[in-house]
Design brief:
Its EC number is 1.14.15.4. It comes from Apteryx mantelli. It is found in: Mitochondrion membrane. The protein has about 500 residues and is an alpha+beta fold. The chain has a domain at about 1-15 and about 45-95 and about 365-425: 2-Layer Sandwich (Uridine Diphospho-n-acetylenolpyruvylglucosamine Reductase, domain 2). It is about 55% helix and about 10% strand. The chain has helices spanning about 5-15, 35-45, 50-60, 80-90, 100-110, 120-135, 140-165, 175-190, 205-225, 230-235, 240-265, 275-285, 290-300, 305-320, 320-335, 340-345, 350-360, 395-400, 440-455, and strands spanning about 30, 65-70, 75-80, 170-175, 370, 375-380, 380-385, 390-395, 455-460, 470, 475, 480-485. The strands form 4 sheets. It has a 5-stranded mixed β-sheet with strand order 1-2-3-8-5, with helices on both faces. β6 (about 375-380) and β7 (about 380-385) form a beta hairpin.
Length: about 500
Amino acid sequence: MGPRSLLWGRRALCSGAAPRRLRPFEAIPRSGRNRWLDLYRLWRSSGFQDFHLGMQSNFQRLGPIYRETVGAYSCVNVLLPQDAARLFQAEGVFPRRMGIEAWTAHRRLRNHKCGVFLLNGEEWRSDRLLLNREVISPAGTRKFLPFLDAVARDFTAVMRRQVQKNARRSLTIDLHRDLFRFTLEASSYALYGERLGLLEETPDAESQRFIGAVETMLRTTLPLLFIPPHVMRWLNHRLWRDHIAAWDTIFQHADKCIQNIYQEFCLGQPRKYSGIMAELLLQAELPLDSIKANITEFTAGGVDTTAMPLLFTLFELARNPAVQGALRAEIRAAEARGPRELSAVLGALPLLRAALKETLRLYPVGITVQRYPTKDVVLHDYRVPAGTLCQVALYAMGRSPEVFSSPERYDPARWLSKDENSFKALAFGFGARQCIGRRLAEAEMMLFLMHVLRNFQIETASKEDIRTVFGFILMPEKPPLLTFRPID
């Protein structure tokens, strides 16, 4: 990081600095000058994969705020937590995030409703309030915790059986695909109340096809952010065809699960908690097509976005054995207090929760959080007009020495200190529009890590940083090899 960026960082965080005169929107530093030429360069150089690194470089070169226009995509990018707080104050009653036109175009093409990820305005708010009760409220979360716990226990048992088959009493593996299977199995169980059997030695081919479709959907989404979908559709470009086919597969998979639970529900099976879908049907407050739209979005969004943080966390714990040992001690102390509800057990694991925060600081699933302010807002001394797409750059913030001390160090304890951490942990967004699957994802990851750490010592031969690429979500260019040794 150069001297200029260090200077602006110190000034920004110095509480005693004198107020400066507001500057107009047009004075915000710009990255690039020709939107279509910049898009062409990104496309030709595979620059999409390094988009997060490009943003980090732009902040170092231009300062804590800059404008960017690439193809059809235009926004203001900010780095500092205080600017994220100002966006929160200006988001209004109906917070609006950047739309993904390619996803919406698929819904129109196939006559599907949109879920809360794509909706805005009053329609978003009414759906969101009804979904909050079952998906993100403490009472709703407690009901699906046993489902997630059962899958985490089963995954650990599968790992133990694999270790026992190995004469070395250890297992060295690229866990990438297994984590996809775990997250789909766990999230589907919580959503639909049924197991898919993905932890078996020969998983269901249809579910494997679904995982491949999710990967294709994410891979093709990124370039479609910069090019109007109607252009790609008119050209009948392969990128567009692959994107639509992937979404069709996702909807077919989700629809099959939905039909199974709906049929059982209509047959009047004995009443017990059978997952989020069944609870929404029982309440009968959301129309069936709205339930299907939202559950499908949950299904598609609950695989990579949970599997990737788990993979990064396991890698960081493998190369930070002291942190791994502290987490294991915390888990043992929590369990030594005797049988309790799962929510109480998870509540007794602050360091484990902090470890996930630390992972998401270094490796945020989404590299930005977007908002359209409903009124003019001042961001780092510039007046930004209402309705401007503004992005908080999470990847760049997490690695900025102006925001975090020793940002390259994996240090979960930083989240337990008395330091000011407001608007620094934004991996799930903020405000009323924060990720609705947040509690599901957090519980899924914590239960997985709790059982894995209790049963295995995790090691890695490589101590080098993982090179990351951006494919609409952040992922490793090459998944690390991890070694699991059982703890007797």
